Amino acid sequence: MPLAAAGMASFSGMNGNASESIPPDLILALRRAQRIVVFTGAGVSAESGIPTFRDALTGLWERFDAQDLATPEAFVHDPELVWGWYEWRRMLVQRTQPNSAHRAIAELARRVPQFTVVTQNVDDLHERAGSTGVLHLHGSLQTARCIACGTAHVFAVGIPDEPEGGRRLRPPLCARCGGLIRPGVVWFGESLPEDVLAGAFAAARACDLLLAIGTSGLVQPAARIPALARQAGARVVQVNPAPTALDDDCTWSLRGAAGVILPQLLASASMLPNAPVRGGQCAADQGRAGP
Ligand code: APR
């Protein structure tokens, strides 16, 4: 199934206001859950300083949308522009740290019998926070391969040293056939790795609770995951400061920043017995009652 955008959302501001407490039935659902899927998007890494795909690009790329650069056509048309963007992002990710949302997710996994993290993110912040077996639907910034023969490219050890505003950068050439090396991510119009997608869909259909965190729900086929879970009888909770395309599939929508709400959610469910509760009250915009 190829990666496809259903439209763009506008988004301003990252920190949601917290005004209400977490719904008691959500706390109960969290305590009782045996099979949880956490489905994340760019918003879960926003508080680590990684821009989301709806944020305006800056520097060398300010005239572009992320969706213009994340395509096979863009790479063929201007490989240096696109490779430079990915190397800059690889640097950004390596320089940053997981935030309290990534850490809360890893902590939650230790307390639930079956737990699957499915991410659209190409960073490794879930893993660096301690999550294991993460399903990366859209590939990884830390992989690259030849555009012609598919041979994997090995990056030099260390953090790329890119200027703040970015630069055009010639992609390396394949050691085997001399073809251009491209990022190991899934671009718009390309198919997702079949086994990873199948694993994510299966986990969604089998879970009793799905948490959709920091995703606009605009990019298919990943955006189907919360609906698959709901249709199979799971409850769905969303954490996002803004309304999203997933709102109708959610039992609860918690409006706020993932780094504030997730630790608070766990503390409220007594799943992190000694977790400090910071950042005020959790926003709970309780949607329709769940099944
Ligand atoms: N906490 C939670 N959510 C946040 C936060 C935050 N601190 N900050 C922003 N968000 C939300 C935004 O409101 C938005 O809904 O994160 C979401 C980010 O949306 P996108 O940028 O569209 O990211 P995502 O849903 O992951 O995009 C999917 O699109 O460009 C492609 O392949 C790329 O994987 C990406 C896919």
Task: Provide a short characterization of the protein structure.
The protein is an alpha/beta fold. It contains 10 helices and 10 strands. The protein is elongated and about 55 Å long.
Main sheet characteristics: 6 strands, parallel
Secondary-structure class = alpha/beta
Tally of DSSP β-strands: 10
Q: Level of helix content?
A: 25-40%
* Highest CATH level, the class of the largest domain: Alpha Beta
- In one word, what is the shape? elongated
How many separate domains?
A: 2
Strand order of the largest sheet: 4-3-2-7-9-10
- Classify the beta-strand content into a percent band: 15-25%
Low-confidence stretches: 7-20, 273-291
Architecture (CATH level 2) name of the largest domain: 3-Layer(aba) Sandwich
* CATH-defined topology of the largest domain: Rossmann fold
Overall mean confidence score, pLDDT:
88
Rg calc: 19 Å
CATH superfamily of the largest domain: TPP-binding domain
